[in-house]
Amino acid sequence: MALFTVICFHKKTLNLLGVLALATLTPGHAVAASYGAGIQNSQWYLAESVFECSLVHEVPGYGRAVFRHRAGENLSFFLESDAPLMRPGRGSLIVEAPAWRPGVAPRPVGMVKVTEGRRQVSLEPRQAAIVAQSLLEGMQPTVTRASWYDGNPVRVQVSNINFSGQYQQYRSCAANLLPVNIDQVGRSRVTFATGSQKLSQADMNQLDNIVAYIMADTTVERVFVDGHTDDIGSRIDNRALSEGRASVVADYLKNRGVDPDLITERSHGDRYPASRSRAENRRTTIRLQREGERPGLQQANGYGSVSAG
After folding, report:
1. CB-side neighbour CA atoms (13 Å) of 239
2. Fewer C-beta within 10 Å: the chain N or C terminus?
3. pLDDT exceeds cutoff 70 at 301
């Protein structure tokens, strides 16, 4: 009889453990899933160039936390997930102390947008700067959002361990970035006053940035410089004026060190208006073509567009 009682008690215990185990997998369970690196596996990795600086932190079980600074842009921060663990919507960002610093109250930073796809959280520059400063202060930024599958909280913690030294190198990288990136100078234009071929100081500053990019990016294989005018005046005069506008820009690029063999000059007169505004049509466009990019159909209508030849 005693043996039978022990067996029944053992079965009830196993059933209870099974129910508890199942409960952890059942929607509605209130336990938060936390992801973060510990003392043993917290690392930050720096990738640097004159085009971009990236500081990457692996978050075990979740994915990566990344500081990114592209040339010509502000600091950004985002979380990349190997799987869609967080449900799209509004999550919270707080700065909290690690476990070995008890008694320090967490500080709320604000709400963050959680989106679908691999890059679930992207912070605007102010929040990115707060995250960086909190890591330097030995704190842990934490994003919390309901899980995709059952609505329970998902917490992603960014570890401050081994951050400070790498961040100093990251700042040095950022200080040496180019002033612009390819998205900002790949298609550019210089506008002119009526009948003018003269570059302003602002124009020369813009062209200096383009030169800096061309000199740094060895994949740039062609630079198209296309002159245009408005529809005031004769076709013959406008063709000559557009040729002069293309030449003044091309000559400036050459004088600043761009290989003349890279540059293709073209003039179009008033044949390809960018818009109904005559001021926008008095322009020279500059387009950079890099290796592997197909020129496609070339047409000169519109802002920064590819010009016909």
Report:
1. 3
2. N
3. no
Report pLDDT digits (tens) over 132-145.
999 999 999 999 99
> pTM, whole model, 2 decimals?
0.78
Check residue 305 and give left, alpha or beta (phi > 0: left; psi -120 to 50: alpha).
Answer: beta
Give the pair of three-digit tokens for residue 120: 């679930």
Please give the order of strands across the beta sheet that includes 33-35: 33-35, 153-157, 140-146, 89-96, 107-114, 119-123, 76-81, 63-70, 52-59, 44-48
DSSP-based helix, strand, coil % in the chain, nearest 5: 30, 30, 40
Say if residues 92 and 113 touch (Cβ distance below 8 Å): no
20: pLDDT strictly greater than 70: no
Among candidates 16, 149, 175, 143, which has minimal Cα distance to 84?
149
CA angle 257, 258, 260 (to 5 degrees): 115
Tens digits of residue pLDDT in 143-200? 999 998 888 999 999 999 999 999 999 999 999 999 999 999 999 999 999 999 999 9
Whether residue 198 contacts residue 249, with contact meaning beta carbons closer than 8 Å, is answered with: no
Three-state DSSP at 16 gives helix
The closest of 202, 233, 229, 235 to 285, measured between CA atoms, is 229
CA–CA separation, 82 and 62 (whole Å): 6
Confidence at residue 193, expressed as pLDDT on a 0 to 100 scale: 96
For residue 249, give the nearest of 280, 210, 305 by alpha carbon. Answer: 210
Per DSSP, 269 falls in state T
Q: What is the pLDDT of residue 98?
A: 86
3-class secondary-structure state, position 79? strand
Question: Per-residue pLDDT for 2 more than 50?
Answer: no
